[in-house]
Amino acid sequence: MKVAVTGSSGLIGQALVTALHADGHAVARLVRRATRAPDEVRWDPTGGGLDPAALVDVDAVVHLSGAGVGDHRWTEQYKRVLYDSRIESTRAVVTAMLAAGRDGAGPRTLLCASAVGWYGDTSDRVMDETAPAGDTFLAGICRDWEAATEPAAEAGIRVARMRSGLVLSRRGGLLGKVLPLFRLGLGGRLGHGRQYWPWISLADEIGAITYLLSEDVHGPVNLTGPEPVTNAEFTRRLGRAVHRPAVAWVPRSALRVVLGEFAKESLGSQRAVPSVLESAGYRFQHPNIDTALAWAVEN
Fold this sequence. Notes:
- 38% of the residues lie in helices and 19% in strands.
- The protein is of the alpha/beta class.
- α7 (231-241) crosses α11.
């Protein structure tokens, strides 16, 4: 296939492009800067959009763009960046796909990133893809993010909405930020630690995305490992993986000082499970937290 990828410079995007090339696919990387390579296509996700001509010979689009949730303190201005970078970019992708397909060409598959933040704070209740959206700020973003793909689905394009959990790799994401602390024996739980963290190794994140490119799966899909764990359990297992104690504790009050409003979201609980992915036949490389962390601290 020929696959267009947005967000190709991020942790997931870089790994996905490498995997697609390894599988023999052609890749068009959508970039916001001036192009530097033959496989790059310039677009303006929140302004000028995307030229439909860039998608005429494309079979599928994997849309991963979005400002980092934990990259900045949540001011009202940055919350708007978080929202617009997801919703406006998705609208631009869908508009270009629909225009490219008017003459029977263009992509017939859209895999759009979303997040387990869709569910809000659900305590210890198990959440599969049938659960409704929550009432948090991130849940609202995810609701509108996924809704922005509806015109594509209504036009007959296969749309899968990928609700990713915490993607585990030492190269980036949350694990990349906290791993140095854990290696020094300074790691610890956040708040009470009873909040569930749905996780997935980067290897399975990429494995699931490439699987969804060829499988007839549509609608919401939780990209999470089969066995979500609490933050306290995650902390213990990560300490074990790096052979260091993990007995520190970050109180809720300290998180509020450092993270602001994001502290409430970071202490939320989503016990999300990959029901759709498993029903579709995907087999996890890292089905439990120990195998996932053992791989992630080295990759």
